[in-house]
Design a protein that fits this description.
single chain; about 35% helix; about 25% strand; 9 helices; 2 domains; globular; GMP Synthetase, Chain A, domain 3; three-stranded mixed sheet
């Protein structure tokens, strides 16, 4: 019996709900979700296995015009995802009047790879608005198959799956059948901590942070984790820690709950804050942080 495998790569502007869609399709929380744009910085793979197929979903950073070297590196993940896809899920939403990144849109128009164009957040709009969006994208992307969805409500996930399996090429699996992602446990833990930073702080601070898990020690009844949050300036360190360390304590409590759900075990989490000056603009520092 033949086996299907392939890369289904998710692209779109920031804040259109790509990560929510990714988690719905994979059935696990592999991408962090916040209401702020540019939360996803890496290309994250989520692997769904069945006896007959392996679908490798890939969530990429939201497309943008780079302002930092970090952004340039994030956009290179998007570029790679457009090249090696077997199927592209192009996510927009009912609020977006057109994709914010012309170059990526042009590439999507010209690609020979099958594109499923998903209009997200339809639970927040009326029928007329949805119909107008469908008509607009039909004109913009005549080669794409258009499907209105709500990733948050899980609406229309079944037709996406049906179409993916119809388009998936015949191939042996790319990854071990037990794997959920190509990322190690430490990566997911650092992402969960970063998610809580985005949820608890405003303005520039979340964007200037990078989280590294320095220690992950599994004992019989507990997992001990030590993580460092890097910021670019001393002032950001003060904001992050908060008066008498209260702010960082809340982040730790919130993150620990999510990590415990993820690992299925009690967790002891220690957080430290260090300054790594202008890390977003330094090639060596970016490389060290995995970009």
């Amino acid at each position: 019996m033949s086996h299907q495998s392939g890369f289904v790569n998710i692209v779109g502007s920031p804040n259109v709900g790509k990560s929510t869609l990714m988690n719905q399709l994979v059935g696990e929380k592999v991408s962090i979700i916040t209401s702020k744009a540019q939360t996803t910085r890496h290309r994250i793979l989520g692997i769904v296995n069945n006896e007959d197929y392996q679908v490798v979903f890939s969530d990429t950073p939201g497309v943008l015009d780079p302002h930092y070297k970090l952004h340039e590196n994030m956009m290179s993940f998007v570029s790679t995802a457009l090249k090696d896809a077997d199927i592209i899920l192009f996510v927009t939403d009912i609020y977006e009047t057109g994709m914010n990144h012309e170059k990526t849109l042009e590439r999507l128009k010209k690609t020979s790879i099958p594109v499923l164009l998903l209009i997200n957040k339809i639970d927040q709009g009326d029928q007329k608005l949805i119909e107008d969006k469908v008509e607009y994208w039909h004109k913009e992307m005549p080669n794409a198959e258009i499907l209105p969805i709500s990733a948050l409500e899980g609406f229309n996930m079944e037709p996406i799956w049906k179409r993916i399996l119809e388009l998936l090429p015949e191939s042996p699996p790319y990854y071990d059948k037990e794997e959920l992602s190509d990322r190690p446990m430490r990566f997911f833990i650092s992402e969960m901590i970063r998610e809580k930073i985005f949820q608890n702080y405003k303005k520039e601070v979340p964007y200037a942070t990078q989280v590294e898990v320095e220690e992950y020690k599994e004992e019989a009844k507990i997992i001990r984790i030590r993580a460092v949050i890097y910021v670019e300036r001393k002032t950001q360190k003060g904001i992050l820690i908060g008066h008498q360390g209260k702010k960082i304590k809340y982040v730790g409590i919130d993150a620990r709950k999510d990590i415990e759900k993820f690992v299925g075990k009690q967790v002891h989490l220690e957080l430290y804050v260090k300054v790594d000056k202008d890390w977003r603009e330094n090639d060596k520092k970016l490389e060290r942080h995995g970009y």
